[in-house]
């Protein structure tokens, strides 16, 4: 890490230079550091869920901005809102998407609902933990199930198949790309209880 001082070329310069250097401005000083090596970083299930959500948000924003009518409506809405007036439309759409969908429900609501699912279906601890994750983030797959419960792939596959058989989950896709969403009506009934 190096601090660049009194250099007009790098004054308030920020961003990256290829994959070798990163420039940041901290308290008015430009700091130069090596580009971080993230290849060995193991992300948690929560981080992976946020990454997927962010990827969806970017795709949503791009699709909205392709349509000229939708883009005009977004720009018009941004002009009327002083907080959004000087922002990039892509950033506005991404942040709105994330705000709307960041959590399906809070951790407390999910915990209460998992208790109800346990009473109705007699789930094991692994299934309960995965169900709580699913209630918070809206989707789960085999890899996330493995990370949440620290089990083998066959055990994760059996547990998820059991949840599908019981009618709690609905599978989408095949093989390693299979993802699971909630199907049971207990969720809809409980969401109405939380809203009232």
Q: Any descriptors?
A:
55% helix, alpha+beta, three-stranded antiparallel β-sheet, disordered C terminus, single chain, extended, Arc Repressor Mutant, subunit A, four-stranded antiparallel β-sheet, 196 residues
Q: In brief, what are we looking at here?
A:
The chain has 196 residues and is of the alpha+beta class. The strands form two sheets. A four-stranded antiparallel beta sheet has the order 1-4-3-2, with no helix packed on it. Strands 5-7-6 form a three-stranded antiparallel beta sheet. Helix 1 packs across helix 3, helix 4 packs across helix 5 and helix 5 packs across helix 6.
Give an overview of the whole structure.
55% of the residues lie in helices and 14% in strands. It is an alpha+beta fold. It has three domains: 2-34, no CATH class; 45-101, no CATH class; 107-189, Winged helix-like DNA-binding domain superfamily/Winged helix DNA-binding domain (Arc Repressor Mutant, subunit A), CATH 1.10.10. It has a four-stranded antiparallel sheet with strand order 1-4-3-2, with no helix packed on it. Strands 5-7-6 form a three-stranded antiparallel sheet. Helix 4 (107-121) crosses helix 5 (125-137) and helix 5 packs across helix 6.
């Amino acid at each position: 890490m190096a601090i660049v001082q009194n250099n007009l070329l790098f004054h308030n310069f920020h961003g990256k230079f290829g994959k070798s250097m990163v420039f940041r401005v901290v308290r008015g000083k430009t700091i130069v550091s090596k580009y971080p090596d993230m290849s060995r970083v193991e992300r948690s299930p929560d981080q992976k869920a946020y990454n997927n959500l962010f990827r969806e948000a970017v795709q949503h924003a791009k699709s909205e901005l392709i349509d000229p009518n939708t883009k005009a409506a977004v720009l018009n809405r941004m002009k009327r809102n002083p907080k959004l007036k000087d922002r990039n439309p892509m950033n506005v759409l991404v942040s709105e998407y994330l705000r709307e969908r960041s959590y399906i429900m809070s951790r407390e609501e999910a915990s209460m609902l998992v208790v109800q699912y346990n009473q109705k279906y007699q789930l094991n601890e692994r299934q309960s933990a995965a169900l709580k994750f699913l209630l918070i983030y809206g989707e789960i797959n085999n890899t996330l199930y493995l990370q949440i419960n620290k089990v083998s792939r066959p055990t994760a596959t059996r547990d998820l198949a059991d949840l599908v058989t019981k009618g709690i989950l609905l599978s989408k896709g095949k093989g390693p790309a299979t993802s699971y969403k909630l199907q049971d009506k207990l969720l809809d009934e409980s969401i109405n209880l939380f809203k009232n």
